[in-house]
């Protein structure tokens, strides 16, 4: 009470409920509150960090400075201070003063893995420990959520910057946690994509899949086939002027994402969804005649000629250039909805295309329509079905494929929330936030064992989505639900609890200026 009164006197928002240690999305693996140990961030705080963690500390300071107005310098030292980020090798000793209880056991750094972290909050300070900078970054995002909501303010706000005491030990359930942005149906400028990366990073997602090509637009510069972007990039759904990313634009997105420990997965959708490429290069079209540019929203009518050798030179050039621009291990070949290509030519085409991708050194990702094709090393299928009974996909998994789960009726962010949602599609049904949350990636497709599931991805198709605000409206609050399915242990899965943790995110989005759909089932404060 005294604390709340002091907060009000200082001009803080009236009575925001103090954050509890477990009030984090996605839910952490282990949470051990220590009500006696809360920490308050003060104006003289310094962030201390060893060299390899410096960039994460700079980003954390960057999130905290605008609202607090504190200088929060970052100091290169491993010494414990009020805010310490420690990178420790897998065999490091338990940090002194760490809370080791029966529930947590001593810190086992080997268990933290590539993205895990430990967060200790005592009256004396906050320490984040991880084995990698990515782990520190995930822990820093948790700390951000443990500060009161006004920490999201872009301008100085008076508040008591308290962090609840205790220990969190956390790591992801699945290695691949992503979202897809379709920049082909509508083009979005680089700044909008960077903002989407920030949204992913906030919820510990680690992959951004960019759907770079489709009937309505080709969005990535290819030097060896320059008309793809110059001609194929000039259209979009509804007749707007479209746009495309230069190599430098794309590099900027990749670098921005990398700093946030997000890997970009570029998709070149083949052999269908290629009208924009055919407009640019009629030689790729089956009849060698350029089709008219397409700005509608039908699918399945276009394809590159699978019978012409020139098509394979095109595929090799494009995937070669995109692979060279992409530091991440993946290259997505699309493969969906090539309705006009007979099954045998489809198969021949994708088998060759898969090998061309493999030759670039990248791992093939493709929509689950690639399933019948022969296996290539490491191949990953992105499953977007609506019925988990899918023998073809299960068979591809038996032959070595792994799966990314994007069930159309749970994870598709372009579906409407409700009948009156002003934008969105509904072919896979309506997806309110509860439907987005109520499924289990590990058991969703029959005959696919949990070990074959690489993770989850929430695609946002943009036939009806035209602006940054509309992107956010479709992402929030469903993206955090999918993020939680990807990150949190199944034992934490619980709708009533998720609902109330999610509700507490609402004021953060409001203060941060993020548009969201105020789902009626969520008890927003
Ligand atoms: C199906 S899902 C598509 C897209 C559409 C989407 C609309 C998939 C691999 N293909 O071309 O944009 O439905 O929901």
UniProtKB/TrEMBL annotation:
Record's catalysed reaction(s): Hydrolysis of terminal non-reducing N-acetyl-D-hexosamine residues in N-acetyl-beta-D-hexosaminides
Start and end residues of each Beta-hexosaminidase bacterial type N-terminal domain: 24-170
Superkingdom classification of source: Bacteria
EC number: 3.2.1.52
Domain Glycoside hydrolase family 20 catalytic stretches: 174-340, 346-489
Keyword NAD part of the UniProt annotation: no
PANTHER family tied to this protein: BETA-HEXOSAMINIDASE (PTHR22600), BETA-N-ACETYLHEXOSAMINIDASE (PTHR22600:SF57)
Protein name: beta-N-acetylhexosaminidase
Taxon lineage: Bacteria, Bacillati, Actinomycetota, Actinomycetes, Micromonosporales
